[in-house]
Design goal:
Strand content: 15-25%
Low-confidence stretches: 479-483
CATH superfamily of the largest domain: EAL domain
Shape: elongated
Mean pLDDT: 84
CATH architecture of the largest domain: Alpha-Beta Barrel
Distance between the termini: 158 Å
Helix content: 40-55%
Number of domains: 2
Strand order of the largest sheet: 8-9-11-12-13-14-15-16
Oligomer: single chain
Length: 483
């Protein structure tokens, strides 16, 4: 027994060392596992941060930074292999109206669905990125010809033509697309994007749902537009704008009861510039808001001066879509009336029928507030769009203005004019005939029961002083007839 003790004493430390080694190994493994988990978590965090840095948080699409990297890789590949690359600049038409009418949550839903449809239209090697707001860029690589880019643009148009589902309702959405191809249109990346943007802008000018390939003439037009916009800004700052007024006649009483305010530009070198030469650029730029505010304030001040002279004339002012749907339009109009100490009935705002149809709910709210101010509302150029009087019944509209094209048709019977007058009267709306040029047309309209008319047979647009002379002449004529 005693002889075995040394052996046992020698074995015990070995067993202890073995047990300790196993414990240390398990501890090392645990520490290794912890370290690996920490490294994995760090990699996940870095990947998430990298994704956030290179992708749009709403749609999950690559953002501008990631797009720049993809463009650089795509151009490098195209140079090496002699292939083409295309940039498609895609913009959602009238997206602002969705936000204004349905709210930003609805707008976000449209953006997410729009992004998904764009992805479905391209290949794995292509890139769909969100440029910002409602603008997207599609990068098409490894193309054999420029026609392939146009085919993808057509595919996108078809994909977005199907209604979008927003808060359970169906919503029609359209897009404008501009296409620029490397190296045909440009070899510089930034210039390529700019040219695709120019082509998109030109497509938008054609109406919603259009796609165009970049043309050099677009650049020249953009430069001309920039020069004109700069000149218009100078005109506003240096009081080069003025208003002329075209008299309107109440046909039953045969008296001038109102005028339409018309904007003119008194250029220091070119002389009097007509609206057709500058108004489209003005309406497409942010300048339409300050210029529109000036027009309204100037017209109200003139209406006040006439009122003080005993001339109760209603002054009609045309509003552009951007003015009408601006968030402060009602407050601005109320402030103009208050400053001029002018009753609301002395102002008549003119809107196109398309403005009401495109954003009918928001438009109805604005018109109700106009009515509370006492301002009259007229629908201009009625009959040229797709509205009907039955549709307009839901809006607080006071006046329907028949477009000149229908007045010209009076010689062929004027059936449409008679129908518009009868239906408008059944809805308690007054009717104004625009662009009346002959005494015969005036007599026909009067016989049909049209309420008011204006045009060159009565008077061209004239300065305020000449309006007063016309009124005095009409009054003198009426006195002569009764004496």
């Amino acid at each position: 027994m005693n002889s075995l003790w040394p052996v046992a004493a020698g074995v015990a430390p070995c067993l202890l060392a073995l047990a300790l080694g196993q414990w240390q190994t398990r501890g090392l493994r645990a520490r290794c596992a912890q370290l690996q988990a920490a490294l994995a978590a760090q990699r996940d965090t870095e990947m998430r941060l990298d994704f956030i840095a290179h992708h749009d948080s709403l749609t999950g699409l690559p953002n501008r930074l990631q797009l720049q990297l993809q463009l650089e890789h795509g151009v490098a590949y195209a140079r090496r292999h002699g292939s083409l690359l295309a940039v498609l600049f895609v913009d959602i038409d009238r997206f602002k109206s969705i936000n204004d009418t349905l709210g930003h949550d609805a707008g976000d839903q449209v953006l997410v669905q729009f992004a998904q449809r764009l992805r479905q239209c391209v290949r794995e090697v292509d890139t769909v990125a969100r440029q910002g707001g409602d603008e997207f860029i599609v990068l098409l690589t490894e193309l054999r010809n420029g026609a392939a880019a146009q085919q993808v643009a057509a595919k996108i148009m078809q994909a977005v033509a199907a209604p979008f589902t927003v808060n359970g309702d169906l919503l029609d959405v359209a897009a404008s697309i501009g296409v620029a191809v490397y190296p045909d249109d440009d070899e510089d990346i930034e210039a390529l994007i700019e040219k695709a943007d120019l082509a998109m802008y030109a497509a938008k000018q054609r109406g919603k749902g259009a796609s165009l390939r970049f043309l050099p003439s677009m650049q020249a037009k953009a430069y001309s537009r920039l020069i004109l916009e700069t000149a218009l800004r100078h005109a506003l700052e240096h009081n080069e704008f003025l208003l002329t007024y075209q008299p309107k006649m109440a046909l039953r009483e045969r008296r001038i009861n109102g005028v339409k305010a018309l904007l003119r530009w008194k250029h220091p070198e070119l002389g009097l510039v007509m609206p057709l030469d500058f108004l489209p650029v003005l309406e497409q730029s942010a300048l339409i808001l300050p210029v529109g505010a000036w027009v309204m304030a100037t017209a109200a001040a003139q209406a006040r001066r006439w009122l003080e002279r005993g001339l109760a004339l209603t002054v009609a002012v045309q509003l552009s879509p951007r003015q009408f749907f601006h968030k402060d339009i009602v407050q601005s109009l109320a402030a103009v009336l208050e400053k001029a100490q002018l009753p609301g009935r002395c102002i008549e705002v003119e809107l196109s029928e398309a403005m009401l149809i495109d954003r009918n709910q928001h438009a109805e709210e604005i018109l109700q507030q106009f009515r509370q101010l006492g301002v009259r509302v007229a629908i201009s150029d009625f009959g040229t769009g797709y509205a009907s009087l039955n549709y307009l019944r839901r809006f607080p509209v006071d006046v329907v203005k028949i477009d000149k094209s229908f007045i010209d048709d009076l010689a062929r019977g004027g059936t449409m004019v008679r129908s518009i007058i009868d239906m408008a009267h059944s809805l308690n709306m007054r009717v104004i005939a625009a662009g009346v040029e002959t005494d015969e047309q005036l007599a026909q309209l009067s016989a049909m029961g049209c309420d008011e008319a204006f045009g060159f047979c009565l008077s061209a647009p004239v300065p305020p002083a000449e309006v007063e002379l016309l009124l005095a002449a009409r009054q003198q004529q009426a006195v002569s007839l009764t004496s």
